[in-house]
Structure formats: structure tokens, C-alpha cells
Amino acid sequence: MSNENHQFPDKTNNRVNVKELIEQMTLDEKIAQLIQLAVPFYEGAVGEGLITGPIDSLGITEETVHNSGSVLGMAGAQDVINVQRTHLSHNRLGIPLLMMADIVHGFKTIFPVPLAIGCSWDMDLAEKSAEIAAKEASVSGVHVTYAPMVDLVRDPRWGRVVEATGEDPYLNAQFSRAFVKGFQSDDLTNNLDRVAACVKHFAAYGAAEAGRDYNTVDLSDRQMREFYLPAYKAALDEGCEMVMTSFNTVDGIPATGNSKLMRKLLREEWGFDGILISDWGAVRELIAHGIAADESEAALKAINAGVDIEMMTSCYVNHLSELVERNEVDVALIDEAVLRILNLKKKLGLFENPYRAADPIREQEIVFCEDHLKVARSLAVKSCVLLKNEGMLPLTRNQRIALIGPFANSGDVLGPWSWTGSKDEAVTLVEGMNAKLSGYVTLSVAEGCGIETATEQQWQEALAVALDADTIVLALGEHSDMNGEAASRSNIQLPHVQLELIQKLKSLGKPMVVVLFNGRPLDLHGVYEEADAILEAWYPGSQAGHAVADLLFGDENPSGRLTMSFPYSVGQVPVYYNAYNTGRPQGAPDAQVRYVSQFLDIPNEPLLPFGFGLSYSKFEFSEAQLSATTMTETEPIKLSITVSNKGSVTGVETVQLYVRDMSGEVVRPVKELKDFRRVELQSGESADIEFTLTEQQLRYYHSDLTHESDAGAFVAFIGPSSSVNTELKFNLIK
Ligand code: GLC
């Protein structure tokens, strides 16, 4: 169906009265608004849309589909127009569908994965990436994105750390705000190039025991509020329209049936009155969790907990009406859920124009356009982290380079949740490096091994190009399916065949740089010592090859800083910078040699700490100064330091301010990030950096959950990573 015969409805003036509309709805029509189904349930989508197909799987009727409220996984302007038009022809009251999809780090222009974006520490660019993702999604007919994912993560065994921005609550909250602002702007109704955001997964999904996906989460309220909740709250403070429940339990009750979490905290304490959607199947999973005997009880518990939309199961549709008839569910709860859903449809203008920004013509012009790809390249450059460099980088263009490894010529650089992003259209590392070397030397390329398998021929081909080269660039990593949902790994090393390849090439005695394409902090045994340089590229997205080549050849200077610790080994996990000191810390003045908190066989420190990252510049810090050694509730203190670039190239340093409360009412982390500055310095240039620290920034959750500061001794630290230890002592007087 082409676009010319599509007549967009004129914007009518009749502003729908949602409450009056609800009064016209039957109970079944109301309940049908609460189900979310995937694309194959709907007619009109090209290549999909077999209503008669999957409805039996959920035991629902066509009538239910015609009265359903929202669709999961729509993408494509013409499909959306077709599905919406068909739907409206069936829907008695003309209530349009909400089109939702997982636009997490790009729609078709794919940005680095969120764990990489986190390492940019660049909120403006993070916001810009969400704005572009929203624009491409909106013109393609999407109304709501299931993002940002803001789960705090400490366990790299968990496959979904790739979707998060790291282990720090303050930084995660900054990114959460930036993403929501980028997706929604502050005028979602009139800015049709934006989409509604849905912060997820509420709550504390990242704390799954052993990093095993969907596993038990058991945290104190205090831990939740201190570490895991701030980033969700930041999203809501930025006006995020929706919240998605998480699969896990929280203190023994699955989040999706947890009234304490959803009604008491989210709705009453935080005042959130937007839509609460379950994760895929999470309502029916209350049965497997063991808090519901059947789908009827699952529906009862979820609606009582405040879940408005049931994603991809039919407990609500098949049981709520009888629960109402039996007076076990108050119909007011259903009306409240329908009101939230219809209010968002109204806010998005769908009653006036059910196609909103869907436009097949504009879609061709906007999606994957050069301007968007330029931003993707810039963010990818800023998201990579230089982990090691013993003089080998940047590369010169007159050396014979052998590019070897399973990621040398791979499009698998987009990472999980890359929506309509195409691996075939992603710039590979060989393309990026060839673009740098054209007119210079010829790049020799060999795979050397697969991701998890290897052949003798692959090795022989790699050996041949390596013997003929001055320098080896090894492109290694995890297949993107080894990250993301349901991709937890007990062994977080590179696959064995890749470690073997490193060893064999190392024996040739040539300079070797390793570029890593992966979605989690890895155990770098067999990599870190062997490589002369290591660039952590994560999954850099559509412009991967250009961004990595920009950095390898020094056209760009690495500036990424880790937001999740790289453990010494998986046995050290969880390891994170903002940990508690314990009563027997290693290295304390009176510490014994043995009876302290330690492992017998590995150090306590991670291999690479939070905030760490190298540069081609050489940054030096002066001694930091305090404006005073006492702070009061009305008199903050200022901390200043001078950063100098003693290197020969311009670079960006991220100056980080940490604080430690030396005596809390509860134990306090040995460091907490309170502020940071990204500062660009020319060679030889210096900059005076000043932070203001206030009493409000010293507040924390006490054992009774009051959020306040205590008078007493504090220590501040300013430096290039969380391993800074120069103490700046001050007191808070109250
Ligand atoms: C998945 C994910 C969630 C995603 C949803 C819809 O199971 O947990 O992050 O948004 O289903 O695809």
C-alpha cells in the first residue's frame, strides 16, 4: 500500500473527554485495553498480522484483539498506518492503539550499547542519542519506547549489564535523566519527533543472585534506596511516562505483584500516576514464583499491585471480569488503569491523529541519515575505554598491520536490543581501518579463529599475515548473543579459542593491540598481560569500524572511563568501588597479615576500577585545596584542583570527586561519587577545576530510612578514577 492513497485525518478540534469515554466502555472493552500483544496478532502489518494465528495460544478472541490497548514491537510507518487503520475499523469507540517497542540505544542508527554510553560520562551526547532514536522511531510509527533501562549493576555474570550504565547510583541517575529528556523532550504532545519513555526494570533487576537472569533479589529497603532506586526516581522526576515491572522478587515478593513496591513506594510515596506495564509474561509468572495458584490469582495480585498493562499474557482478559463479578476486584482499579492508558493516548494526540508522526516519506529521509550516523560515530569514540597502552598506540599509517580475529570483519558490533539496526550495514573494523590506510599500506586481514571455535586453516592464515606484519591488531570478543537477556555467563573470560590465538600470536614477539567487542566487564586473564595495548570498544554500534579506527590511529584521543569495575577474576564478583570497609579491611594500620577480609589467592582490588581509563595525553593533577575544613548546612565547601596536560596531544580528562563519611549511623561506602567534570585540554594547557560540596550531598538513608546527613568527619578525594587516595579531610557541623 503506497502513501499517496493514505489520507491522514485532519486534526479535529474535538478534544476527547477520557472520563466520558470510559463511561461508554463495557467492562470487557475496559479490560481489553489492559492487554498488550505483539505484532503477529494484528492485521495489516506487512508479512505479519494473522489474527487467527496466535490468539488460541492465549485463549483470547478476535474481539479482544479489536479492543486491545497497545502493541509490542511495531516498527515501520506503513505497517503502523495499516495496523492502526484496520484496528480503528474494528474498534467500536474508535480508541487507537499505542505502539510500543524496545528502542534502547537506537532505532536503525545504532549507538553504542548503554554500558558503553555510560563510559562516555557525556550526558549531553547521551541525551542526543536518545533524541535521535526517538526521532527515527516516531517517524516510523512508534509511540513509546521501553527505555531507559537504569538497573544498577555489579555482577558481570549477568547478561544485561550491557543495557545498564554501571555501578554508581549518582551517575546512573544522571544518565537516566538524560535519556528520558532525549526520548520525550518536555513537550511530548507537540513535539512529534519524540516518544514516551518507559523506565525499567522496576526494581533492582540488576541485583539477581549470582548474576543469573530472573533470579532472586533480596535487598534491604536501605540498600534499595541507597543504590538501586535513585535512577528510577530520576527518570520519574524527569517526567518519564511509564514504568516497567521487573521479573525478579523484591524481598520475597515478585515485583509484578508487589503492592509495597508499586502502590506504596511508586504511586503513594513518589506520586507516580503514569502507566505501569508488566514485563513480558511477568503477570502469569506469579504462578511459577509461587504467589499465585492460577491465572485468576495472578490477575488479582497484579491488578491490586497496580499493574495497568499485562504484556503478552491474558490473565487480565480471561479472569478480571469474573473477579469483578465476584467482588474480589474493585472495578475502580480497572477504571484507574484504563484512565492512565487513555490519558497517554490523549497526551500523544492519538485521538486526533492516530497515526501521529508515522510518515513513510519522511521515514526515508530521516532514518539512518548521515547526520545521525555522525553522532553515532562521535558517541562511539567517546564510549571506548583505553585499558592499557605501553607505547604502542596510536598506530602510524606506514607500518605493515595485520588485523586478525573474529571481529576483524564482523558486523556483530551493534549489541543486544538493536531494533531495526542491521549488522550488514554496520561499519566493520576492517572497513574502518582500510578507510584510514587507503593510499598508505595495505592492511592484511585474517579471522584466526571464530568466536568459540577454531580450525587449523584459520590459524595458518592468521600466522601468514602476522609473520608478514610489523604490528598485530587483534579484534576479539563475545558474540552479541552472549550478552543481553537470558545470557548470564559463569565464566566471564574470552572464549578459550581466542585466548589460544593470543598466546600463539604472542610467541611471534610482535607488538600486539587487542580491541575488545563485548558487553560486560571480562576476566582479562590471558589478555591483559599478553597485550601491549587494549582498547575496550564494547558494541560501538553502526559506526563501530570508523570510531575504533579513529582511536587506533590517533585521529581521536580515547576519553572513556569505566563505569563498571573489571574484576580480577569471576571469583571476586561482585566487586564494586562503593563498597563498605568491613571491620577487618586489608591494609589498615593495625591489620593482621591473615585475619583480614581478603582472598587467599587473589587481591581484593579489581583489575581495573570504576572511573578508570587511559588517554594519549598525559594528565597531571596538582594538590587539591579545600576552601575550609568545616561545612555547615548553610555553608558548603569548595574543592579545587588544577589539571595539566603534559602530553603532546589534546585530550579530555574526567575529574572525579568522591566523598567518604567516616562515621555514619550505618556503615558508609569507602567512596561515593558526588560530582565530575569532563575537561578538554590542549597540549601544555592547564585548567583549574572547582567543585562545590553541600550538606545535601552528604545525606543518606539511615536505619529508619530517614534521609539526612550526620555531623562528623568526612574525607573527599579528587582524581582520575575511584582508586584515588589523596585525602582531603573536613567536618560537617550541625
Ligand atoms: C523483555 C525484556 C524487556 C523488554 C520487553 C519487551 O523480556 O525484559 O526489557 O522491554 O521484554 O520486549
Task: Note down, in words, how this protein is organized.
- The structure is a single chain.
- The chain is of the alpha/beta class and 734 residues long.
- Among the domains are: 371-552, Rossmann fold (3-Layer(aba) Sandwich), CATH 3.40.50.1700; 617-732, Immunoglobulin-like (Sandwich), CATH 2.60.40.10.
- Helix content is 28%, strand content 17%.
- Strand 24 and strand 25 form a beta hairpin.
- Helix 13 (295-305) crosses helix 14.
- The N and C termini lie far apart (71 Å).
- The model is unreliable at 1-14 (pLDDT under 50).
Q: State the total count of DSSP E strands.
A: 27
Would you tell me the overall average pLDDT? 95
Strand content: 15-25%
Q: What ligand molecules are bound, each kind once?
A: alpha-D-glucopyranose
Q: What's a concise summary of this model?
A:
The protein is α/β, with parallel strands linked by helices and 734 residues long. 28% of the residues lie in helices and 17% in strands.
Characteristics:
21 helices; 8-stranded parallel beta sheet; Immunoglobulin-like; alpha/beta; 28% helix; binds alpha-D-glucopyranose; Rossmann fold
Q: Topology of this structure?
A:
Elements (H helix, E strand, L loop, with lengths): L17 H7 L2 H6 L2 E4 L16 H4 L3 H6 L2 E3 L4 H14 L7 E4 L12 H5 L4 H17 L4 E2 L23 H16 L11 E7 L18 H8 L1 H8 L4 E4 L3 E2 L2 E2 L4 H11 L5 E3 L7 H5 L5 H11 L4 E2 L3 H11 L5 H17 L12 H7 L3 H14 L1 E5 L11 E4 L24 H9 L6 E3 L9 H12 L3 E7 L18 H11 L5 E6 L15 E4 L7 H9 L66 E3 L3 E2 L3 E2 L5 E9 L5 E11 L10 E10 L4 E8 L6 E2 L5 E2 L3 E8 L8 E5 L2
Parallel strand pairs: 1-2, 1-10, 2-3, 3-4, 4-5, 5-6, 6-9, 12-13, 12-14, 14-15, 15-16, 19-27
Antiparallel strand pairs: 7-8, 11-16, 17-20, 18-20, 20-23, 21-22, 21-26, 24-25, 26-27
This protein binds alpha-D-glucopyranose.
